[in-house]
Amino acid sequence: MVALSDVLASNAQIQSNLPKGLIAIFAGATSGIGEVTLKTFVRYAVEPRIYIIARNQTAAERVIAECRQINAKGQYEFIYADLMLIKETDRACEQIKRKEKLVNLVVLSAGQFIFDRKPTSEGLNALLATGCYSRFRIAQQLLPLLTAAASTTPLARVVNVSSGTYEGDVVTSDMQVQNLSFTKAFSEMKPHVASIATLYLEALADQAPTVSFVHDFPGPVYSNLHKNAIGVFGLLIRVITEVIYAFLGRWLFVPIEESGERHVYFATSKNYRPRAGTAVGMALEGVNAAEGSDGLVGSGVYSINWDGEKRTEASVSALKKLRAKGVKEIVWDHVTGEFDRITAGM
Ligand SMILES: NC(=O)c1ccc[n+]([C@@H]2O[C@H](COP(=O)([O-])OP(=O)(O)OC[C@H]3O[C@@H](n4cnc5c(N)ncnc54)[C@H](OP(=O)(O)O)[C@@H]3O)[C@@H](O)[C@H]2O)c1
């Protein structure tokens, strides 16, 4: 476990260790983990330029006003996009690409519990559309800007707040997990999502070895996630989460402020350095690279638990088996195939 004191000590040096004017994209920072990570980041960063992609304009205005109070020298811009849709995701990325030549940091936390068999208007599983596909698309679309940042600045990183360390089987026969029974979907969704995210990020790292990628599981964090869960199953999640939080919250949940600090650490520490190049983040003495998702130290993609460490050997060995079976290529072909299908004729 990375001690919280080490996290705080590292974050406290961002101001003196990283350059001013870092450019960061937060997809889903109008609430929850994204919001607290954004506010923590702007507390430390010098004159950052921030783009927030989400849907709720009122919440975005509130978050931006609070960020201005924390760091008046930062620049903040809201980009409206429904990240359930790839075309909207592309439009948001285009807006950023028109304005910026490089991007230092991309934090992906947009998502909603939607348990609905009905696919999106673009034919994607509604739960995976925001939780996976649009996140993959943002990372892919902004990869040239991240690579540009890696060549001239010390930070070029993507942080995907999802289900790192829970890798396991991938449902290759039904990549969108649309046709499984309810109970099977429930048990197979988490390893499927975790694995496709890590393997997709590994494929991006192969193309951009000077950029680093963190895929974390934030632990249970009390936010709006369960409150906005949709469907009968969503109601169940709302009730169960409130009951567990009321009785066991202080022991089982990661305090949201701590989650913000830890995510800023994931976003900036040299622990999660790229496999090549000099964009290692905070070059602090005594900090060495962590073990990557392939089991090698400093290999550029990190699947980690809420505390910054990998959970067990199980995820490393599950990923090893998936790579040996060619599932990394299957994931890449599937995801890019869906993007091509959706954007054909645009
Ligand atoms: N909290 C936890 O315990 C927990 C545990 C494990 C994993 N996670 C992961 O962390 C992610 C974030 O959780 P959280 O606790 O921060 O949730 P949250 O408080 O509900 O925040 C979700 C964010 O996603 C945005 N969003 C949702 N649907 C969107 C859409 N279609 N288009 C654009 N933005 C959208 C929301 O903004 P708008 O409403 O403004 O669009 C909001 O900013 C989850 O999706 C999940 O992947 C969380």
Automatic annotation (TrEMBL):
Record GO terms (molecular function): oxidoreductase activity
Lyase found in the keyword field: no
Record carries keyword Cell membrane: no
Keywords: Oxidoreductase
Source organism superkingdom: Eukaryota
InterPro entries found in the cross-reference section: NAD(P)-bd_dom_sf, SDR_fam, Sec_Metab_Biosynth_Oxidored
Official protein name in the record: Hydrogenase/reductase-like protein
Species annotation: Ophiobolus disseminans
